[in-house]
Amino acid sequence: MEGRDLIIAARRGAGLTQAELALRMGRRQPTISAWENATQRPSFEAVLEAVRACGQELAVGLPKADDSYDALIAGQLRMTATRRITSLTTLRAIDIPQVLADLAGAGGDFVVVGRVAAAAHGWPITLGAAEGRDLLVEVVPASLGALERAVARCGWASVAERRWRLHPAACLVAHEHPPRTSGYRDLSRGAELLQIARASVRVASLIDLIRIAEGDAHSSLRPYLSALWSTLEIGRRPGRKNDVARAVA
Fold first, then answer.
1. Which residue from 158, 166, 148 is spatially nearest to 109, judged by alpha carbons?
2. Which of the 8 DSSP states describes residue 223?
3. Each residue of 22-72: pLDDT tens digit?
4. In a domain, 238, yes or no
């Protein structure tokens, strides 16, 4: 991880603009922008100051280095987003990329979150259902009503509030405000448009997936935070696609 990542995650988690964070820190907005855009490297002290200005604390430790995910992530990053998802889906009877493409084609305006979003970015954790639970395709819609109409066009049956059955063991789930976010507009600012099953699908950035996981102890992403950070770091290495989160004032 880099200092800029921690600043972006803390600022977005606090719902602050760059200008608002600069005001809290007694600095200029261009300084915050330079840190987040990697044109200037913040000092460790500046990172701590920024995180605290966002009402958060940075837990610092020296755990043993873990590169166990690196080779798997590198392999995933050589694939397309569609192939990344399908290669990790253990429930072969459902085509998750096609589900997302169908939803986008039906007029759904949404940001993909959760494990499917992480898979689209290249993390290596499987997407199978666990302990009798459904495999989840999680999204944050721009409008719940518009998403419901798109779902109806796709023919998926409602099984609960904001939940639709895609397959006997898989569901589509709509979230309004994932932890440490203010919803669609917040996530869409940093989201990336990825080509998935020949459709342009908006996927939450790795930085935003990290802040969601850190804000929810029950998140399916929480046990794999190290894999998310590793995916972000490896994706930035020379020759890889640059996955720097967009810095938005």
1. 148
2. G
3. 999 999 999 999 999 989 999 999 999 999 999 988 876 656 667 788 999
4. no
Element (H, E) at 37: none
| Token pair recorded at residue 19 | 């200008």
CA dihedral 125, 67, 224, 47 (to 10 degrees): -140
Q: Are residues 118 and 172 in the same domain?
A: yes
Q: How far apart are CA 125 and CA 115, in angstroms?
A: 8
Cα 55 to Cα 106: distance, rounded to the nearest angstrom: 40
Quote the pTM value: 0.81
Q: Are residues 15 and 135 in the same domain?
A: no
Structure tokens at 40: 């200037």
Query: How far is 245 from 87, CA to CA, in rounded Å?
Result: 25
Q: Which is more confident, 167 or 132?
A: 167
CATH number (domain holding residue 37): 1.10.260.40
- Whether 197 is covered by a domain: the verdict is yes
Q: Which tokens hold the place of 108?
A: 């759904």
CATH, residue 188: 3.30.460
Distance of CA 178 to the CA centre of its chain: 11
Alpha helix positions (H), 29-122: 29-36, 44-53, 70-77, 81-88, 96-105, 114-121
- Domain of residue 23: give its range: 3-53
- For the chain, the C-alpha Rg in angstroms (whole number) is 18
Number of separate domains in the chain: 2
> Which region holds residue 161: left if phi is over 0, alpha if psi is between -120 and 50, else beta?
beta
